[in-house]
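Example record for the data management plan.
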Amino acid sequence: MIKFVWNHKFKLLSIIILSFIFSIFTLQNPKIFYDSDRILQYANDIELEKNKNIDSSNLFLVGVEFNKNIQFEDVIKLQSLHNELLENKNIKLSQSVFNDISLLDINFLAPFGSNKKIENKEDFDDFIKKIKKRESLFVSKDQKKIFYIILLKSDLGEDFNKKFITNLEYKFNTLKASSIYITSQVKGELYIKDKVIKELLYITFFSAFLCCVILWFFSRNIKFVSIVIISVLFSITIGFMISQLLFGGIELVMIIMPAILFIVCISDFMHLVNESDDAKKSKLEYFKYQINNIGKPVALTSVTTAIGFLSFCFSNVLPILRLGVITTIGILISLFIILVTYAICIELNLHIINGKKSLNKNIDNLISKFIKFQNSKKSIPLILLMSFLCLFGINYFEINNYINDEFNKSSDLYKEMQFFDKNFGGYKEVSFNVEIKDDLEIDSVIKFENEIKSMGFTIDYSLFGSFKNLKSLNENYLQELEEKQISIKSRMPDIGSKKSLVLVNKIKKAANDLNIKIQIKGNGYLFDKLSDKITLEILFGLMIAVLTICLLFLIISSFNFKYLLIILIPNTFPIFVCVGIMSLGSFYFSLSNAFIFAIIFGLIVDDSIHIITSYRFNILRGLNKKEAIDKSVRITGRAVIKTTMIIIVTLIPLLFSEFNSISQLGLLTIISAIVAIIFDLIYLPKLIRYLL
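Corresponding structural encoding:
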């Protein structure tokens, strides 16, 4: 295999280049799957409410905010817009204060009607009096904000949806309002698709630029820098191309894949070009030597990183399963590309990277300080502090999910969501379906309705009114219904899955006390249940990956159980320390960040495995334990430090992303990388010395 790669390296490079060119053409119009919607589609054990009249994916919430109380002129324009929406054939439903049934004077003779058209100042004054007297879902208490619900027909196509949103924004912007807020799942999908592609391009460009700068700073060899960057770009592009071919598009969760492949490529290259004590006669012999002694640990770290993501393949949720498949394939492709390009580096005499002598000397001095610190009493307070942070993180372990978790607080979409949360009861849909039984009394349903309201839910009375009003019309309303269920539609603020599920359980108890049998449905409830389940599934997969890697090393070490601790502690301790540091703020595990720890684990495993394998190699060469440890730290430590510095600098652009999964990827990886290098160069050698 090694000889084959060496003999056909340029042919293999040609295949890689052709694959890259094909990938560029394939990805000219990529399809981005919006993960929140697709995750909901693959819920097997939680029933999604299917209502032929209501399709929440095409539901638009529109908010209009004025600087002062709504004036007569404002209401005339708002009413005109409402009428335009009602006349639009592509709109199935349009609800606003102008057809809010809760403002009608309901009586037995005219149970259903329409609000009086506002034509003059007198009509306006009557309208304002009604709003002050009765609660309306569509007007805020300060009478400065108006709310519209618009349901668009389904399957109108992406182009139509874009035009509809643009037209809707244009119409509402003609009002003399201070702000216009429009949110919907459709708009969210289009917004994310557009932003994801742009961010991938911008972040990749700036990260590549910073990577080039720091690689050149270390190597002083622009040709080597070019080869490394091109290898990274090849790996990322081919990985996305495979997803496009296999699955017809790219899952949104795959936006973290470039960072994974970048870390794999950079780390592997830096270890392969790290200085070697053995000068061989021919380039082929040198290539064989480096692959056998450094390439094997590189391959092992790639396999262990791939195992972390392969665990996602056991997920029941299709987007996560696909992330596992494509990332695993991408890591293996990256390993192959590195092997070929490294062979070419040797052929072109680019494999010896001396860099600036003063810089290497400073790194060597830093490593010497790490070695001295190992036996210093000062290392005790540091490990105690890290242990405290580790325990602190475990103690404050929390799983929580918000629908807007993915969005940075400065993003337009987040601000729009917050507007509806604060002023109009939120955007999370929850339906309480009450089973109609012979002994069900309408008074019990009214009490149940009040319980729901008391817990912060906003019940939509706009279509049929409240059960209290229905009782005033007909006390035998429930007995005369032909349906087997009645549905109480509600919305709630995005307070997180943890608090939401507590409220839902309280409502279940209240229903049970009132002898009411209910089913809870709706996308909001489904998100809370499913997102927590998937987050746990991801963390469980990571635990399986850790145990699998431990088993792998047990087999490699002929079931020397001391190696279990040597692998387990250095590769999990820094993660818990990182969680502890983040928990000093308001950190919680969620769908947006659970994936990140698989990447962090891959990074940490990479460095620790190189130090452990270097130690074993030195022992086999006849060095005693102390000499073997010191030499492995001095030689491998240089590559570990350089790799960590490159990763930290290159991940800085991610901190400014509009998406939390990307910004947290940068932050968590940087923190973990710093903790890991401290542990690997100070405490891992001590563990090896005491246990092996």
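Summary line stored alongside the record: Confidence is low (pLDDT under 50) at residues 44-54, 106-113.
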